[in-house]
Amino acid sequence: MTPHHAGMRQTGVRAVLLFAICLLVQLTSTVGAQAVSTPPRLGADTWVDVDGDGLADHVTLSDLGAHTRVAVSTARGRISRVDVPFDDNQGGLPVTQRLLGAATVDGRPGLELVVFVAVGDCSHDQLLTWRHNTLVPLPAPRRLSWGVCFLGSAPFGEGYARRVRHHRAQLLHYTGVTSGKKVSVRRTLYVWRTSRWVKQSVATMRVTTPHSYKFWTLNFPWYTPAPMVGDINGDHVVDCADKSILLDDWGTAMPRSDLNHDHVVDIQDLSILIAHWTGTSTCTG
Fold first, then answer.
1. Which of 24, 77, 249, 251 is most exposed, with the fewest beta carbons within 10 Å of its own?
2. How far apart, in whole angstroms, are the C-alpha atoms of residue 45 and residue 224?
3. Alpha-carbon torsion 244, 248, 254, 260, what sign?
4. Secondary structure in 3-state letters for 224-257
5. For domain 229-285, which architecture applies?
6. 26: how many CB neighbours lie within 10 A of its CB?
7. Taking Cα atoms as reference points, which of 197, 192, 190 lies closest to residue 171?
8. Which DSSP letter does residue 29 get?
């Protein structure tokens, strides 16, 4: 086959595939998230579903000295910012490390952002959540910030855990002090109702020091954004740009476009890309 004929054949293939896309693309999308045991550091520029609509929202952090500015630009175009106080007395924490993670805490749709306020023997964090189309703090029981104190480094312990009982989110607040060779731990149970945490019960237990370590943390169901299938160029949308890359890789074993990992970029990979399409623009060329 001459180069001229090969070029004509490739052009014909692209035209047929473009026509197929016009017939098959459905503008649907989902952004998955997977639970992990420890909070993955998300950096100062990440994508998380904050507003709970199933689409990844753009989250950025910037250093304002005594504050950390947290900005969210949702997939639907809404923008909101919150300036979180930041205590720099411990030598400073880079802005790229001030977002501890994203987690589901109060049981409402969307993930809460957990941002460092102060770091030391006791750390303090502020949780940000989405309410009424804006980013707002999610207070801890009885105060705004969430404290974590590791008993041993600090003279007392404090931490939180989240669980679900009877389809309702529950928050456990732990405090503790050393009592002889054991630790006296007080557990207060809260549930979220409308706009605040409501106390349900209080219990006290005595445990050995090693067994108390699990209490002095934020034991939340941490999440990390799942990779978007078909997002070949990594811009968090599956659209014409990804389709163009896939067509350029057609017939090769290019890993970036080999979505089903069968070592050839073909109609099966195109079908996967179409099934995960999120773009809204019309493809041309």
1. 77
2. 13
3. positive
4. EECCCCCCCCCCCCCCHHHHHHHHHCCCCCCCCC
5. Orthogonal Bundle (1.10)
6. 8
7. 190
8. -
What's the pTM?
A: 0.71
Residues 187 and 218 sit within 8 Å (Cβ to Cβ): no
DSSP string, 190-223: EEEETTEEEEEEEEEEEEEHHHHGGGSSEE--EE
Give the three-class secondary structure for 140.
strand
Long-range pairs, 80-86, Cβ under 8 A, ≥24: 80/130, 80/133, 80/134, 80/135, 81/135, 82/128, 82/135, 82/136, 82/137, 84/115, 84/117, 84/126, 84/128, 85/117, 85/126, 86/116, 86/117, 86/118
- In this structure, what is the dihedral angle of CA atoms 199, 173, 164, 124, given to the nearest 10 degrees? 120
Task: Look up tokens 């005594």; give the residue.
Answer: 66
Residues recorded for the chain: 285
**What is the tens place of the pLDDT at every residue in 186-234?**
999 999 988 899 999 999 999 988 888 899 999 999 977 667 789 888 7
Domain boundaries, given as residue ranges, for the chain? 33-225, 229-285
Neighbours of 163 (CB within 10 A): 13
Contact criterion met (CB below 8 Å) for 207 and 147: no
pLDDT in tens, 255-275: 999 999 999 999 999 999 998
pLDDT, one tens digit per residue, over 78-95 is 999 999 999 866 667 899
Joined together, the tokens standing for residue 164 give 């679900």
